[in-house]
Amino acid sequence: MATSNQDELGLRYHDGLDAALQAASSDAAASGARVFPCTVFVQGGRTMISTAFPYGFLANQVVADSAVKGGDPAKATNRPLITDHVKTINSYVKTNPDDYILPPLTLNARELPALHVPRGNFKYRLGFMVVGDNTRFQVTDGQHRVVAIKGTGSGKTAIVGLVDDPDQRFDGDSLAVVIVVESDTKRIHQDFADAAQTKQIPASLLAVYNTREPLNAVLTDLVEKSTLLCDRVDTTSKTLSKMSQSVFLLNQIRQFAKEFLFADYALAEASVAKQSQQLLGTPALREEFVADTIALLDVLTEHMDPWRDIVQLPLSGGPASMIPDYRQKYVNMTATGLVVIARVAYEIRKSQDAEWRKEQYKRLATAIDWNRNALIWRGTIVSSDGKISTNRAPVKQAADKVKDELGLVSPSMWM
Length: 415
Description:
Mean pLDDT is 88; it is low at 410-415. The protein has 15 helices and 13 strands. α2 crosses α4, α7 (214-225) runs parallel beside α10 (283-303) and α8 runs parallel beside α13 (335-348). Helix content is 42%, strand content 15%. The chain has a nine-stranded mixed β-sheet with strand order 1-6-7-2-3-11-5-8-4. It has helices at residues 17-31, 55-61, 83-95, 143-150, 185-195, 203-209, 214-225, 250-262, 269-280, 283-303, 307-310, 322-329, 335-348, 354-366, 392-406, and strands at 11-14, 34-43, 46-54, 62-63, 105-109, 114-118, 124-131, 137-141, 151-152, 159-160, 174-181, 233-234, 248-249.
């Protein structure tokens, strides 16, 4: 550490935090600049600064240099802008103005702003950054968040920035930033690639966490209130291992719920968000759906093989090792089997007669042979080598066969 009042990076040292603040305030007053309290630290051999910028300041002094589609991305700081991604972020914040979160930006400064820190041989310290009107920070990671805040486009295709929205006020909001002192464009590109080294969240875990989605919000109740599913659903994995003693993944239960609610387990997520707001948008609607689903699951669990045997097993240990065996033997122990059940149950649920629905659920459990080798599944969801298909067409064919077997032929029956 240099012993002078300023080192080679431009950090200005003072005898204590109060002295650093006073010097920063004096600089700002003399130049019309702003003072930002910050943390100065070292990571990977480089000096970095963390602070937070108000949206208005960010819109004016943080810039993105987006590559042009079809052009040479090596000549720009950022990748091509994806307008749909900007629109998604912008809409998410405006839809949840009092309950949203945006991750920090990673910025780069070609030159270090005036930075006042206490003297000392420390690699981590508090400080005060002085930023003038002519200072610009480049985006390393987060250009779509920046553009969502600033806005983009014109006319009918314009995305109104958060700072310009006439109906909502975001001028009191700020976004955390990490500023890297870096002037080498190649290194900035590498920083972007390094920041993108993230692992996608498994669908089951996303279903647990993203409870803004009304369909996800009911999943916990479905699992906890079902005698079959409670403590037997894997909520963290992407796939079930061959020897897993869980009966299903949470994402498989979500597909089941999608089918029971929308009659389409593969409905696009954008449509799920829109339709679930209509069908599950209030506590009363969610309670009704949970009650209907549990009524279905309870009847099936009481009467259907092997579900009625599974609920008698301990949650773990030797006897629970029967579950992987059941998964190999029964269609209704697979995600496809769940979807077939839900598709048929969707038709039954159209009736207002609760007792009639219960009787049909019982017939669904007992009148259908759920073994993989049953004739009803051949040529639809079970191939000649015993593998289960997940495609829409075979699922529809299998569900139609089940409805025919149960005599559920015409929608007019539900009137």
